[in-house]
From TrEMBL:
Protein name, entry field: Cation transporter
Keyword Transmembrane helix: yes
Record keyword Protein biosynthesis present: no
Annotated TM spans: 12-32, 44-62, 83-108, 120-141, 161-182, 188-209
Gene3D superfamilies xref list: Cation efflux protein transmembrane domain
Chief localisation class: membrane
Domain of life: Bacteria
Cation efflux protein transmembrane domain sequence ranges: 13-219
Subcellular location: Membrane
Record keywords, A-Z: Membrane, Transmembrane, Transmembrane helix
UniProt membrane topology term: Multi-pass membrane protein
Amino acid sequence: MSCEYAKERNLLKFSSFACFCFAALGVGIGLWAGSMAIVFDGAYSLVSLFLSLMALGATVYIGNGTGKNRKSGKRVSAQKAEVIESLVVLIKGLAVSVVCVVSFASAFEAMFNGGREVNAGSALIFGVVNLVGCFVCYFFVKSRAGKQASTILKAETSQWLMDTVISAAVLVGFIIAASMMASGYAEYAVYADPIMVILASVYFATVPVKMVGDSTKRLWAIYQEDNTMSGQRLLA
């Protein structure tokens, strides 16, 4: 296995473990505190966990294949590796899009059903810890991936950036809710949580769309290149 694939595999292992911790923490505390924003954050981390594991599996397969495929005895071609990486990014983008749409719909419904009360004290503590943790993971993966990062690691870095911004949005929502409750506007504080989910969902809609668009373009380019080469072989 090459050094690049070994580095990629180790970063994805770290990312998967971190996603598991944040997912368990987010979903658990979100349900306990009654915060849809925290549950959304945890659900995104849970999706990120499965996506990171999928990316890890793809990297292990490609990395082993650059040595020699045990069954066929053939090496994994650069084109096949690029197809696998593009498919992983495409699936990541589609999965994150679904999370954004579902979260937006749930928050929009909550807006017209009296909002949602939140345990602001516990939520604020979670918000700070989660924001710092996600930023540290984002910085670690980005810095270790380097300037010439693979397509998979770039997508992984984008995932952590999204999680960091979601955590920041959730924390801002809790601060606003706590301020409203302290200043006598508690009846409006119940709308802070769903509003922050809506804003975060709308903001992130552009990120998975870009991921899907870029990976689709790469796959289409590979398809066209393969067809061109096939036509040249037939004419030869």
